[in-house]
């Protein structure tokens, strides 16, 4: 029997996360968990979007620390620098450069319609800066530099990816085949984990009430307490139904982390009260996060290893992205250096 060689090229995938705080259970379920699982089947690039985080005022020494912590958190969640390219955005100068070019192909009206811009400018009315406004053009550059097939994100980022696709159509329409068209990849379940205190709002690391979110480094007793206090409703039935936002959210978390369908979850808790259910959800979250917390404690002490990884990641990312940038510059008519 002749040996079969798989010569098929893997599809490419890219995503990023801002270093604005310890990642939440929402970030993990909606994004990072999928990133880890997809490493086996795709060529992946993941990065810390530090340039993006400058759109909100940051304390310099704190930011520097958070960038390294965010990088270590990605590795702790199972992103493997031997399998994927894992880098820090500001270490790869092509991002800012293509970001500028793409801004010139993005309309003011398009940027004005972005809900993240509207939300963040309402949250920080004293600092509605040009970077906050132009952010989606930089995000489009982050993506298009690597010509990925898919961009795995939570549902809140879909609008930005749609704008990226509009930019691709515009530029390819003028200059021919410049960029590959990327697709958002949004998980079937868990793409929008809600706040434990206000289950009509997305779980967010910048929520002022820490009981609304679980971070991936929370200790087990903290996690159990947050679930115990999670807002539900005045009924008693564990069932996924419109109007039961709190229970729907807890069922989603439990279903994703235990790999059980919503029907199975409903059956499992038939005749049991919310107290038992919340305890079970807390326990499955503790089980999922404990190895991450332990990995992180080890990684954050190993500065030499982290530096080695992000240096290698930046070199790999620079090499790939430079090719796309050179092509774009040529297509739009910039004179190559002598
Ligand atoms: P911030 O609170 O600072 O605005 P964030 O918690 O929304 O930040 P991001 O860095 O904007 O986090 O998001 C990183 C990734 O996590 C994105 O792909 C985003 O779609 C996803 N994500 C964020 N929050 C959730 C959530 N509650 N449920 C599912 N996915 C989420
Ligand atoms: N906008 C994203 C972070 C981000 C990103 C990207 C995600 C920046 N560049 C490129 C996917 C692809 C956020 O705020 N969550």
Descriptive notes:
The chain is mostly helical and 338 residues long. The chain folds into two domains: 12-191 and 303-332, HUPs (Rossmann fold), CATH 3.40.50.620; 210-298, Orthogonal Bundle (Tyrosyl-Transfer RNA Synthetase), CATH 1.10.240. It has helices at residues 25-38, 50-53, 60-76, 94-103, 108-112, 115-123, 130-144, 158-175, 220-228, 245-258, 262-268, 274-299, 303-332; strands at residues 12-17, 43-48, 85-88, 150-152, 183-185. A three-stranded parallel sheet has the order 1-2-3. A two-stranded parallel sheet has the order 4-5. Helix 1 (25-38) links the parallel strand 1 and strand 2. Helix 4 crosses helix 7 (130-144), helix 4 packs parallel to helix 13 (303-332) and helix 10 crosses helix 11 (262-268). The radius of gyration is 21 Å and the shape is globular. It binds adenosine-5'-triphosphate (ATP) and L-tryptophanamide.
Ordered list of secondary-structure elements with their pairings:
Elements: E1 12-17, H1 25-38, E2 43-48, H2 50-53, H3 60-76, E3 85-88, H4 94-103, H5 108-112, H6 115-123, H7 130-144, E4 150-152, H8 158-175, E5 183-185, H9 220-228, H10 245-258, H11 262-268, H12 274-299, H13 303-332
Parallel strand pairs: 1-2, 2-3, 4-5
Helix pairs in contact: 3-12, 4-7, 4-13, 7-8, 9-12, 10-11, 10-12
The protein binds adenosine-5'-triphosphate (ATP) and L-tryptophanamide (LTN).
L-tryptophanamide binds at residues 15-18, 49, 52, 139, 142-143, 151, 153, 157, 160.
């Amino acid at each position: 029997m002749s040996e079969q060689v798989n010569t098929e090229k893997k599809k490419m995938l890219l995503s990023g996360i801002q270093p604005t705080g310890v990642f939440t259970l929402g970030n993990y379920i909606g994004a990072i968990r999928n990133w880890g699982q997809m490493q086996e089947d795709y060529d992946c690039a993941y990065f810390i979007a530090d340039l993006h985080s400058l759109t909100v005022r940051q304390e310099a020494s704190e930011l520097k620390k958070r960038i390294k912590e965010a990088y270590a958190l990605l590795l702790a969640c199972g992103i493997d620098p031997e399998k994927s390219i894992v880098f820090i955005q500001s270490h790869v100068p092509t991002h800012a450069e293509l970001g500028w070019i793409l801004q010139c192909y993005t309309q003011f009206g398009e940027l004005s319609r972005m809900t993240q811009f509207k939300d963040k400018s309402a949250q920080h009315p004293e600092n509605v800066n040009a970077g906050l406004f132009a952010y989606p053009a930089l995000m489009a550059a982050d993506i298009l530099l690597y010509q990925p097939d898919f961009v795995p994100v939570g549902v809140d980022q879909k609008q930005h990816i749609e704008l990226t696709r509009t930019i691709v159509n515009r530029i390819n329409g003028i200059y021919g085949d410049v960029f590959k068209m990327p697709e958002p990849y949004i998980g079937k379940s868990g793409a929008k984990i809600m706040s434990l205190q206000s289950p009509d709002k997305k779980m967010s690391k910048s929520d002022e009430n820490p009981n609304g979110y679980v971070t991936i480094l929370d200790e087990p007793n903290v996690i159990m307490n947050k679930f115990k206090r999670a807002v539900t409703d005045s009924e008693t039935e564990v069932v996924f139904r419109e109007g039961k936002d709190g229970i729907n959210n807890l069922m989603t978390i439990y279903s994703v982390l235990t790999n059980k369908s919503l029907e199975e979850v409903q059956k499992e808790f038939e005749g049991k009260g919310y107290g038992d259910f919340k305890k079970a959800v807390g326990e499955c979250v503790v089980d999922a996060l404990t190895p991450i917390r332990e990995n992180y404690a080890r990684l954050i002490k190993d500065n030499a290893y982290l530096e080695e990884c992000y240096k290698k990641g930046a070199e790999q990312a620079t090499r790939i992205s430079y090719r796309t940038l050179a092509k774009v510059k040529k297509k739009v008519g910039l004179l190559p250096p002598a």
